[in-house]
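User: Structure tokens for this complex, please. No commentary.
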Amino acid sequence: MSGDSLPLTLPLARFSAGDREATILFGELRKPLLRYLVCLGLSSDEAQDVVQDAFLRLHRHLSSGGAQDNIRSWLFRVAHNQARNRQNSYDRRFSARLDEAGAESIPDEATPERVLLEKEKLERLGNAIRTLPDAERECLLLRASGLRYREIGEVVGIATSTVADTVERAVKKLAEKCNV
Amino acid sequence: MCEYSGRLIAWLDRELPDQEGIDVESHVERCAECRTAVSAYEEVSSAFLSCYQSAMISPPRRHAAWRALVGVAAAAAIVAGILLVQPRLEKLPIRLPSPPHAPSMAFEKPVPPTPAISVRLRPAMAPAPPIHQPWIANEPVVEVSLPADALFPPGAVPQGFHYIADVHFQQ
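Assistant:
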């Protein structure tokens, strides 16, 4: 799965001045961050709060002369840690949004038989996702966000080789449980 | 199990070093087992990605159901309101201004103003066949009530006289 076209290092020299790069950065990363947080189980309001706070922290980080390399994984890591701090909703609703979203992904022009088959497949997928350990689900969500293995490792705090093993294990489990 | 099976997903994700990726690719072209596995991994990854990309910030569906319920209730209330108010509107009389009373003479007994005659629409003749034009109402749209003393001189109003005026608005 290829990553986003977003460069790993952004020209953020004038970020603190609220220049055009900041707007581009916010526009590029706000939506992926929100989607990731919602899929982790946060409500829309919680996700908005976390994303806003993450960008404020980024502003402080860069204003104080912090490193500017790989801002994307920096933001995902901040958001990921804040989601973990909201442990109640994080545990209870993890992957619930994926279940809800499954039905939305079926095309409108699909025949009734196709819709039924797709719903059964998505139900199996939802059940399989719920049985995955948190680390595997997190890696798959970050992978679906377009992050590279190295970035995923930076977000969740594990080695890149561990990310590769975790992703492989998770995908194989899903394929086996979904009978594909 | 094929020795390459542990690197197929990393190869799909383009996470292998260049030369290793080329090796896996050439192997997959020759190995049916790995091609089957790659196909399964691609399918499940695509399904996961579709779900993930559909998961946006929209409110849960139960909110949509509540909105639909409220909408139906509001529509029912509006229809009920129209049905309840319409008959009243039809019966509202339009009263024309009465002519000014002549100054009373000292030797005349003051005559109390004649009450407005109630208006009911039911002619003695056979009812006319319904007009099959959808834009004409079967019932009079407006009933006009005229006081008898506006039509007859004082004291000349026949007993039991009723006057009915139906006004249809037509184009």
